[in-house]
Specification:
single chain, 266 residues, alpha+beta, Alpha-Beta Plaits, 2 domains, two-stranded antiparallel sheet, binds iron/sulfur cluster
Length: 266
């Protein structure tokens, strides 16, 4: 069980508690203001902040470690992500009040892709947000759960990692579907500047009897968790690196990869 389940989960996985997606939480005017301010900040400042943190890390590693702790604690309180496998993403979209597919803010900022619609807003109406972002108001699509599930499956087959995101924790307002253009990936995995996207409640394992060592799964893993062993000509998963996203399963024609629930196995 992770720290978020311990704090917000009432004995379950914390994101299975449907109050965390509720209109009551969303009606808090402070939350709407936070979302608006957060989006503007990402659009205007995220790459500058990335450069500044990178500079501090290079010039003063000890100061960076201290800043990283403070920033990570702040993010856990206001806006963080947790990786979830496709099965849990499907279960969430079955149960939320509304699903709106919108353009991805990270891909817009980091790669200039202004209409890459990889984000699913949960409960939040983008037309009600006072944000200077034309694509958000013109390029959204309200989805029924069945269509959201189909889209999630397509993303999964493409190897995109699913994650839930809070806006003033514990409210969960989005399911994201990310590649290496994701700001969280750049901040956390590429540059190790801060922690913002946490591991899932699962870990992957490869059945050595089924694995034929084709290595197809290696390129699917954004976290470098699949390793090849020359000794036996098979792949295995490093549990310390695995984020439990499960997308590597799409690559395996031998169905050799399984996700294990950490809550059950612990
Ligand atoms: S977290 Fe992923 S889907 Fe969401 S805005 Fe960033 S890259 Fe896009
Ligand atoms: S894709 Fe499957 S069979 Fe191929 S190396 Fe990975 S686990 Fe083994
Ligand atoms: S090895 Fe782990 S982190 Fe990598 S793709 Fe598979 S489940 Fe995701």
């Amino acid at each position: 069980m992770c720290e978020f389940c311990t704090k917000h989960g009432e004995g379950k996985k914390w994101y299975e508690i449907m109050e965390h997606y509720s209109m009551e939480l969303l009606k808090d005017p402070g939350r709407k203001a936070y979302i608006e301010q957060f989006v503007s900040n990402i659009r205007n400042n995220s790459m500058d902040n990335f450069g500044k943190l990178q500079w501090v890390k290079n010039k003063a590693p000890l100061a960076h470690r201290f800043i990283k702790k403070i920033v990570t604690a702040h993010l856990k309180k206001y806006h963080f992500g947790q990786v979830i496998p496709i099965e849990d993403a499907e279960s969430i979209v079955e149960n939320v009040q509304s699903i709106t597919r919108i353009p991805c803010i990270c891909r817009s900022v980091t790669a200039g892709k202004n209409n890459a619609r990889y984000c699913l807003l949960l409960g939040i109406d983008p037309t009600g947000l006072n944000i200077d972002w034309p694509e958000l108001k013109t390029s959204f699509e309200v989805l029924v759960p069945a269509d959201a599930k189909k889209i999630l499956r397509v993303f999964d087959r493409q190897g995109l990692v699913h994650s839930i995101w809070t806006f003033k924790t514990p409210f969960i307002g989005a399911i994201c579907n990310c590649d290496r253009d994701c700001l969280a990936y750049k901040y956390q995995i590429s540059a190790d500047l801060t922690d913002i996207m946490f591991k899932s409640e699962y870990v992957a394992q490869i059945d050595r009897d089924l694995c034929i060592g084709c290595r197809s799964c290696m390129s699917f893993c954004q976290f470098g968790a699949v390793e090849y062993s020359i000794a036996d000509g098979k792949c295995h998963i490093n549990p310390h690196k695995c984020y439990g996203c499960g997308v590597c399963r799409n690559a395996c024609k031998k169905q050799a990869i399984k996700l294990t629930d950490k809550q059950i196995s612990s």
